[in-house]
User: Which sequence fits this backbone?
């Protein structure tokens, strides 16, 4: 019974990872104009929730919001991948971190071929930092609980 539950747990994590990657890479396939429109819509929603954001030049351009989204989506992916590593025991830390870097590189490569988008090395670094943050959070929590 415990083995079945553990396998179900691993399957759920894998499904979440796939959903997260589809979300990340799917957004990278959205042409620049539409992506900018989506950012503007989200920026409008956030400015209503947090009116103090309206005056910031970078916040009002959407640049900061896009960078926060990059970091956050990769932090979620790093959390999921680290949970999978902990559940499966077939992955090691180096493998998990390498997968995060590869996911970020694929993401930016997709943008090189998407109209109105640009793959940027700085975003690979930002994505990797988000992934590493998720990895560290899960690892830290796990050590505290042990």
Assistant:
């Amino acid at each position: 019974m415990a083995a079945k539950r553990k396998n179900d747990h691993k399957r759920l994590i894998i499904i979440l990872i796939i959903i997260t990657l589809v979300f990340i890479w799917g957004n990278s396939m959205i042409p620049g104009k539409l992506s900018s429109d989506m950012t503007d819509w989200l920026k409008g929603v956030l400015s209503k929730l947090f009116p103090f954001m309206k005056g910031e030049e970078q916040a009002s351009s959407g640049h900061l919001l896009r960078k926060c989204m990059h970091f956050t989506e990769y932090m979620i992916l790093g959390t999921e991948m680290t949970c999978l590593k902990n559940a499966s025991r077939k992955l090691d830390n180096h493998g998990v971190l390498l997968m995060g870097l590869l996911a970020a590189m694929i993401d930016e490569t997709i943008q090189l071929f998407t109209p109105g988008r640009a793959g940027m090395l700085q975003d690979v670094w930002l994505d990797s930092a988000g992934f590493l943050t998720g990895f560290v959070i899960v690892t830290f929590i796990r050590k505290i609980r042990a």
